[in-house]
TrEMBL record:
InterPro entries: EamA_dom, EmrE-like. This is EamA family transporter. The chain crosses the membrane at residues 26-49, 61-82, 113-132, 144-163, 169-193, 214-235, 241-262. Keywords: Membrane, Transmembrane, Transmembrane helix. It holds the Pfam family EamA. The lineage of its organism: Bacteria, Bacillati, Actinomycetota, Actinomycetes, Kitasatosporales.
Length: 288
């Protein structure tokens, strides 16, 4: 079941990233993040009340709170790195954060078998290649590399933290709700500061009407992200974190394939090779 839930995580994260990327073409990125997470927080709050999730309050929720703080900070660093570019280098480098949960799994005593080690190595190479790395061309600023590595570490830390946030279904909903509350608090603060500095919270053309008409898409992004986090928590609790983390990190492949299918973007040779390697790595992990 670990592989099933981890692959579901990749699918949901990949679709959420694709949807979020489309929305940021019309709406400021911070507004996309905050609005989608507010919707998700409202839905999760209702679920927690309906399921009696408040009874699961305990010290493990600090992990969810930490993930809720680290996640938006990592995303902001990633957006800043993408702005500095080149995107062809920054985007795939963000995937190396998988080393964090894998490292945590090894530290707590997990010892993957030979096939699983081979699968991890092959899948990680595939993940990086699927992002379409730009191997030559424009120089990369040191600040962009530093911000990307900070973001990657943050993404990996979120995976490690949410894996410890709950061990029951009702507790899962509460942990996800706490994470969203912290996401909104951090993202909302960043949005407020950004507006105070002169940035726009709404699109210059269309304003609030564009945001209002995009609410269904924003809800999908927020809820897909929530579902992905929930699926990853289940995957990490059901089996080895080293396996769950790598399979859950296949989302760049999903994003690239969605761009190919919906936007008709052509995959580079390296992306096609990466998708193939990621599939091979998945098979090896499942077989191990």
């Amino acid at each position: 079941m670990t592989a099933v839930f981890a692959l579901a995580t990749s699918l949901l994260w990949g679709l959420a990233d694709f949807g979020g990327g489309l929305l940021t073409r019309r709406i400021p990125a911070l507004t996309v993040v905050v609005t989608s997470q507010v919707i998700a927080m409202a839905v999760l709050g209702s679920v927690v009340l309906a399921t009696g999730g408040w009874s699961e309050v305990g010290p493990q929720l600090w992990f969810a709170a930490a993930a809720g703080v680290v996640g938006p900070a990592a995303m902001l660093a990633f957006y800043r790195a993408l702005a500095l570019g080149p995107m062809g280098v920054v985007s795939p480098l963000g995937s190396v954060g998988v080393a964090v949960p894998v490292g945590v799994g090894l530290m707590v005593g997990e010892r993957p078998g030979l096939l699983q080690v081979a699968g991890i190595l092959v899948a990680v190479v595939g993940i990086v290649l699927a992002g379409g790395p730009q191997l030559r061309g424009a120089p990369v600023q040191r600040q962009a590399i530093l911000l990307t590595l900070i973001a990657a570490f943050g993404f990996g830390a979120v995976m490690a933290l949410v894996a410890e946030a709950s061990s029951s279904i009702t507790g899962l909903f509460l942990a996800l709700f706490v994470q969203r509350v912290c996401n909104v608090a951090v993202g909302g603060t960043a949005l407020y500061v950004s507006v105070r500095r002169g940035a726009k919270a709404l699109p210059e053309e269309g304003g609030w009407e564009i945001v209002r008409s995009s609410l269904p898409a924003l809800a999908f992004v927020g809820l897909a992200d929530v579902a992905a986090n929930g699926a990853y928590i289940v995957a990490a609790n059901e089996g080895p974190v080293t396996v769950a983390a790598v399979l859950a990190s296949l989302y760049p492949v999903i994003t690239a394939l969605a761009a190919r299918g919906v936007l008709k973007e052509r995959l580079r040779a390296s992306q096609a090779a990466g998708a193939g390697l990621a599939l091979v790595g998945t098979v090896l992990l499942a077989a191990g």
